[in-house]
Amino acid sequence: MVLFPDDLHVPRRLRRVMRKGTFHVTLDRDFAGVIRECAKSANRGHEGTWITDHMIHAYEALHRAGYAHSVEAWHDGRLAGGLYGVSLGAVFFGESMFYHIPDASKVAFITLMHWLMERGVRLIDCQVRTGHLARFGAVDIPRKDFLSLLVRLRLRRGPAPGRWDMNNPEQDPVL
I need a labelling partner for 56 at 20 to 30 A (CA). Which of 28, 84, 86, 157 fits? Predict the structure, then answer.
């Protein structure tokens, strides 16, 4: 399942939530907190999670190298939801998301999509089909088409490696 940013659909109810300003969204402020909350969330009701301690350490190394990133939604100064993934060229590979307050991860996701679109990202790898992502416009594509897109887009210009910051003018799109 992938999302082409130009096909992003934001439900009317979620647009209202975003306008209210219930959540303050940041980038790369608490990568460790986000990945650990995702691991806890993925483990609820299951015997295990793919987000093991070994995977957490590997993604934290990718974060320090500037390739793995987190998006945090804060409410009253507390982490309410978020997601993390890996950025290469004009592709963002979404890994996992969580929420403690309804709509927190959705607001983080939509905010990230707009930020990525402004910086030339043309493909979001959602990996697993969910109704949640389909409502935002994500679609299934054949594996061969996905691989073809990766060959082209991973070398195109996207957000530069390094720490992301919503308020950093150096990361503003080139017009």
Answer: 157
Query: Assign residue 77 a region: left if phi > 0, alpha if psi is -120 to 50, beta otherwise?
Result: left
Amino acid 115 reads W
pLDDT attached to residue 168: 65
Q: Is-contact 70 84, C-beta < 8 A?
A: yes
Is residue 71 within 8 Å of 26, Cβ to Cβ?
yes
Instruction: Report helix, strand or coil for 10.
Output: coil
Task: Tell me the three state secondary structure of residue 151.
Answer: helix
pLDDT in tens, 29-72: 999 999 999 999 865 555 557 889 999 999 999 999 999 999 99
User: What are the tokens at 112?
Assistant: 């990230």
Angle at 139 between CA 56 and CA 166, to 5 degrees: 50
